[in-house]
Specification:
alpha/beta, 8-stranded parallel barrel, 10 helices, globular
Length: 303
Amino acid sequence: MNNQSHIFPDLILGTAMWGWNTNKETAFALLDEWYAQGFRQVDTATNYPIDKNPAHFRLAENILLEWIKTHGIDDLKVMMKIGSVNNLFTPEHILTKSFVLMMSDEYRHLFKNNLATIMVHWDNRENSEEINKTLEAFLTLKNSGFKIGLSGIKWPDLYFELNKNWNLDFLIQIKHNIIYSDYHRYADFHGKPRFITYGINAGGLKLNADNYSEKSTLKTRGGNIDNEPPILQKIKKIISEFNLTTNKPPITAFYQVGMINAFYHKDVSGILLGTSKVEQIRENIRYHRLLQEMDYSDLFKKL
């Protein structure tokens, strides 16, 4: 049995690519599998998918809502990120107290009992007075029973200082994988399992370059499979040596590396999955359960 001391991070289904490289039928299939396997947490945002197509603004949330209404679901735990006013990959946002409360009321009406968490999405502000108004709105939401959080904050230290007056217990979404991590930017918030990681597969990297498809996430987002980060070769070497010296199931895919890197981090409470195929969900769930039974912390330390 796994003897790690910290709580196992939860899995959360992401929707960032819904309406982009994941159509409605596939998203429905993903939700069907997710729900059937007993998972309930789903993350979305007003501006998903961020594909720079204005017609797709709020499309991901609408796909999720249609699935909820079709099946009469009332026990999801939806994480909604608000503030962005377009899906053009710009930092434009509205995070005034009135807007935050208005959007929260709208989502409470739309998602009903399925809405669990409300997060700020993409805040580049340096104005303390403006941020304080956002935190004032968050206190109202917290007192209404919602979890609250942050995602894509340019000045986390400013949020930390201002929050001393509000004592809000934030969940924080960060990009965190074996290649790149924003964890260090939130140093003031370290020491508690409050972080939810996304991008654990580093944009869709593969251990074997032959496994990239034309619809792979890396290619969809404009990545170049012929220009792998130099650190990937080091990771492959570590994995190769590990596989030769362990009696545990070998590491055969990059998603396993990403899962291990997030699973054993002391401050990670949730792992966002950006899956686009049902089999990918099954593989991630199987591996998450394996990590609860077998200890790969030795590989985590080497990585």
